[in-house]
Design a protein that fits this description.
heterotrimer, A alpha/beta (about 250), B mainly alpha (about 240), C mainly alpha (about 220), A: about 250 residues, alpha/beta, 6-stranded mixed sheet, 4-stranded antiparallel sheet, C: mainly alpha, MetI-like fold, 9 helices, about 80% helix, flat
Chain lengths: ~250, ~240, ~220
């Protein structure tokens, strides 16, 4: 019997150097949902994602993932293996080929036999559109878009219940953004549960089931994308969105 | 000194204590040779710096042929063990009609090998000042000469500084090898004392501490400067 | 000069070769000790808790702050005073090896700390344990990054093994001095020795460059 909420975050606080970066964040994510988090830089978006994955340990609050209180678990790495994380700067292991990058977690964390892991890794790479001739290339030999897709494959191959995206397209050249967003959109359509921190409001409009606007460690506004992006109530959100619409020349009609 | 440490058997601590009492009176004798150690270090290091900088500049700013020749000379110099270099100067130069006293021979012998290392340090530093900066300097209308003088040199010196200081500590420690031709520097003197009192332990520990007292602060300084450069983003590739 | 060089190399060639062999034995053995020791110290300094870190730090500073010659004399002449006696070659291997461990520890440590934290974070996010991250992510990269300095160290040790001459280990330098005093051809013998050292240093550095190229990650520029 599966509960509908995959992730519940309750009153999450994080202090860095004595200053609050997250101030009592509360939200939940249902299975199959794509949650998009928008907000200016320095708002605490990255910290929030890292807290969920325990790359950063929160100071107060509760994180319930798949029915379990994550902060009470001692085997953090087991929790992490059920959550994928896609980083802004891809963070591929630079001494491993694309294929080896995807296989590492399967072999060392899931203890899969090599040949099985390889098969699985190849499937994941194909799913993100990385063709066979790129499998044995090293990260430095791939374009940014390709690297990020390999990073998504690396997360995907672990069969995570949730994938966290931390500005996955911010470090990419404009013409490469599309190929990554395209993969993410397909994942969303396939009902993968995702939390996406991004500035791509066009993507948010099309894909998000809910948009949250984060600023100064607090959620200022949340709701369907049409509301938050096109008709925000909060004054600060409205100012931000106006600028974003100018940058992306989004026709608000 | 060691008598309070319970792990050492009593007879051993007794022996060490007696040895220490024998040794203490010789401390001034060992210290008196510190000046020669410092003279060796400063002069050979200074000479090597001059040679190193000249070689590095010749490599970067002259012709391709000179680059090849100089870089091979430096490689050859770096390939000679220090003892041999000192022996060659001490025993070899008289054959060419130039007899040097041990102290001078040691200075020259150490400087020759160290020049090969300093060439590496300064060449790396000059090259680390990126071409982009030179381009920017030219775009402002600076001449080649003033671009080198005001853009390359100050930065190259800063970049080289940590390695340069570190190299001094290496030279200082290497002066002990001048013992081979009987230069009366600190290490030699410690060995002489050891032979007189028939105990090597305390003289060696003592000189080790003196070397450490000089080298450790310098290596801290070098690390600090290196960290600072790194923060300023001045360490490009190759350093 | 040339004829004397030929004379020495013909007459004492075998002796020189034996000296060279001992030189290589000292170099390789002390390098191995230095690498194993250096690896442990570096991992201790980056990874483990306070007391171990302090110990490793003191070791490194102590051995880097004092001349190798002092360390060698300590092992060969001072340790017998407290009942530890070893032969000249072993003493040289121990002293040079312990010294090199301090240097190699620093090379490996600085390589370890130059690995971008982003990759370590990514490894954590996959659920890898700390130990697995050390073995599969950090060490393979650190060793690669440190290769130039580590191979340099080997060449350095090859030359520095000549200080074993001071404790009468019969390596190349010692054998050379022996021949020199026997034939009175000091300069010729020293020139010959210098040529041998230079030759091998250059050959070794070419091998090092080859290894460096071989292990380079394609497309990766540090």
């Amino acid at each position: 019997m599966l509960k509908e909420e995959l992730l519940i975050v309750e009153d999450l606080w994080k202090f860095i150097d004595g200053k609050p970066v997250l101030k009592g964040i509360t939200f939940d994510v249902s299975r199959g949902e794509t949650k998009v988090i928008l907000g200016p830089s320095g708002a605490g978006k990255s910290t929030l994602l890292r807290c969920i994955n325990l790359l950063v340990v929160p100071d107060r609050g509760r994180i319930i993932f798949d029915g379990e209180d994550v902060l009470k678990r001692r085997d953090i790495h087991n929790v992490r293996s059920k959550m994928g994380f896609v980083f802004q700067h891809f963070n591929l292991f630079s001494h491993m080929t694309a294929l080896e990058n995807v296989m590492l977690g399967l072999v060392k964390v899931k203890k899969m036999p090599k040949h099985e892991a390889e098969k699985k890794a190849k499937e994941a790479l194909m799913a993100v559109g990385i063709a066979e001739e790129l499998w044995n290339r090293y990260p430095a030999q791939l374009s940014g878009g390709q690297q990020q897709r390999v990073a998504i494959a690396r997360a995907l191959a672990m069969e995570p219940k949730l994938i966290l995206f931390d500005e996955p397209t911010s470090a990419l050249d404009p013409e490469l953004i599309w190929e990554v967003l395209n993969v993410m959109e397909r994942l969303a359509k396939a009902k993968m549960t995702m939390i996406v921190v991004t500035h791509e409001i066009g993507f948010a409009m099309r894909v998000a089931s809910e948009v949250m606007f984060l600023d100064d460690g607090m959620i200022l506004e949340r709701g369907p994308p049409e509301q938050v992006i096109l008709n925000p109530c909060n004054e600060r959100v409205k100012r931000f969105m106006d600028r974003m619409k100018y940058v992306y020349s989004l026709d608000t009609g | 000194m060691a008598s309070n440490t319970p792990e050492i058997p009593w007879w051993l601590s007794k022996v060490l204590e007696v040895m220490w009492q024998n040794f203490v009176q010789y401390v001034p004798i060992i210290l008196s040779a510190l000046s020669n150690t410092l003279i060796l270090a400063f002069f050979s290091f200074g000479l090597a710096t001059v040679l190193g900088i000249v070689m590095a500049f010749a490599e970067v700013f002259t012709s391709k042929t000179i680059l090849i020749i100089v870089s091979w000379v430096a490689r050859v110099l770096r390939g000679v063990p220090l003892i041999l270099s000192i022996f060659l100067v001490f025993y070899g130069l008289p054959k060419l009609g130039l007899t040097l006293p041990p102290l001078y021979a040691a200075i020259l012998g150490i400087a020759i090998v160290d020049a090969g290392y300093q060439e590496q340090i300064f060449r790396g530093a000059i090259k680390a000042v990126s071409n982009r900066q030179l381009e920017a300097a030219y775009s402002l209308g600076l001449t080649r000469a003033s671009a080198f003088l005001y853009v390359v040199l100050p930065q190259a010196f800063r970049i080289a500084l940590p390695s340069w200081i570190n190299d001094f500590t290496i030279v200082l420690k290497d002066t002990s090898i001048a013992y081979a031709i009987g230069v009366v520097e600190m290490f030699t003197q410690a060995i002489h004392v050891a032979q007189v009192i028939m105990d090597y332990m305390w003289p060696l520990v003592f000189v080790a501490l003196i070397y450490l007292a000089i080298c450790y602060p310098l290596s801290m300084l070098s690390n600090y400067l290196h960290g600072k450069l790194k923060m300023m983003g001045m360490l490009g590739s190759g350093v | 000069m040339i004829s004397e060089l030929l004379y020495v190399s013909l007459k004492y060639g075998l002796l020189l070769l034996e000296g060279l062999r001992t030189t290589f034995i000292i170099t390789i053995a002390s390098y191995a000790i230095g690498f194993a020791g250096g690896l442990c110290i570096a991992i201790a300094r980056v990874f483990f808790h306070k007391i171990l870190k302090v110990f490793a730090g003191v070791y490194v500073e102590l051995f880097r702050g004092t001349p190798m010659l002092v360390q060698l004399f300590f092992v060969y002449y001072a340790l017998p005073e407290i009942g530890i006696r070893v032969d000249p070659v072993t003493a040289s291997i121990i002293a040079i090896g312990l010294n090199s461990a301090a240097y190699q520890a620093e090379y490996i440590r600085s390589a370890l700390s130059s690995i971008p934290y982003s990759e370590i974070e990514a490894a954590y996010s996959l659920g890898l344990t700390k130990l697995n991250i050390l073995i599969y992510i950090m060490l393979p990269q650190a060793i690669r990054i440190a290769i130039p300095t580590l191979t340099n160290e080997a060449i350095y040790l090859f030359k520095y093994s000549s200080i074993a001459y001071f404790v009468t280990a019969s390596e190349l330098m010692y054998v050379g001095k022996l021949i020199a005093t026997r034939t009175f051809l000091y300069v010729e013998v020293y020139v010959l020795l210098a040529l041998l050292y230079i030759l091998f240093s250059i050959v070794l550095s070419e091998i090092a460059r080859y290894i460096e190229r071989k292990l380079q990650i394609p497309g990766y520029v540090t």
